[in-house]
Amino acid sequence: MLNMHNISRIYQTETVRTHALRDFSLSVKPGEFVAVTGPSGSGKSTFLNIAGLLDGFEEGDYQLDGVNVKGLNDDELSRLRNEKIGFIFQNYNLIPDFSLFDNIDMPLRYRGFSAKDRKQRIESALEKVGLSARKDYFPRQLSGGQQQRVAIARALAGDPKILLADEPTGNLDSLMARQVMELLHQLNSEGSTIIMVTHDPDQARALSRNIQIIDGEMSDFSIYAPHSGADLSSSTITA
Ligand code: ADP
Ligand code: MG
Question: Which of 24, 36, 45 to mutate to test the pocket of ligand 1 (most atoms within 8 A of CB)?
Fold first, then answer.
């Protein structure tokens, strides 16, 4: 599904050179739900942005659903991203002036689906997140947890191969966070492949696949990791 091999990402500004990822390798299979943890500034968002084709890399190889992304131009990357990836952000990234229906519709329009197909996808996605009755509401009329569920519906409507979530419960209180996590677990049990960056050790512990990024380098703490580079004795993550 997702295969990264020795990826390096270096950010160079006038004064600072940051090795945001170094020799980063990761393989994620269909149906996995992967937690990514690590200190602030360690490279988690960089990894997720590269995985989601929002950012490039200097070295290494990346295959997404069998497609080698190296050498693709911007148009090809956009098309691949729209088709394969569903994003969920910490701050929801909904368009305030659009109804829930139109928010979910927007990326589907880019894909060129027919109006009938779009309507069916939007209604089905809203039903999955339990917000069918609110399709004509605007984001400001919803709680944070509901807004995040709309963002999840928007990600799902395109039928992506993989969902990428960057601290999806970071702005939510604990009850709403739990509801969003239950939804993600349910989607995973129905077959969705999910990679989630999280600050919450309990959320990470609940998953069988746990990777940690520190200073741009990856350790795999997964219970069933094939090549665990981790020293489990010093890990704070317990099986
Ligand atoms: P995390 O999500 O784990 O907090 P990031 O992936 O956002 O970390 O950032 C990793 C490192 O790369 C940080 O040192 C950050 O300052 C740097 N960085 C991220 N994006 C940029 C950018 N666009 N330009 C320069 N440096 C960046
Ligand atoms: Mg981040």
Answer: 45
Q: Would you say residue 238 lies in a domain?
A: no
Residue of 215, 139, 131, 219 whose CA lies nearest to 179? 131
Asked whether residue 229 is domain-assigned, the answer is no
Q: How many CB atoms lie within 10 A of CB 121?
A: 20
Q: Report the distance separating Cα 85 and Cα 103, nearest Å.
A: 17
Alpha-carbon distance of 153 to 155, in angstroms, equals 5
CA of 41 relative to ligand 1 center, distance in Å: 6
pLDDT value for 208: 84
Q: Is there a domain that residue 138 lies in?
A: yes
Distance 206 CA to ligand 2 centre (A): 21
- Boundaries of domain holding 131: 2-222
110 lines ligand 1 (CB under 6 A): no
Q: Is residue 182 part of a domain?
A: yes
Ligand 1 atom with least separation from CA of 38: 3
Q: Please state, in angstroms and rounded to a whole number, the distance separating the CA atoms of residues 6 and 223.
A: 23
Q: Are strands 217-220 and 209-214 parallel, antiparallel or unpaired?
A: antiparallel
Domain count of the chain?
1
Q: Whose CA is nearest to atom 13 of ligand 1?
A: 41
Higher pLDDT, 185 or 228: 185
What is the arithmetic mean of pLDDT over 202-228?
Answer: 82
Task: Please answer whether residues 193 and 1 qualify as being in contact, where contact means their C-beta atoms are separated by less than 8 angstroms.
Answer: yes
- Mean pLDDT calculated for residue range 5-25: 95
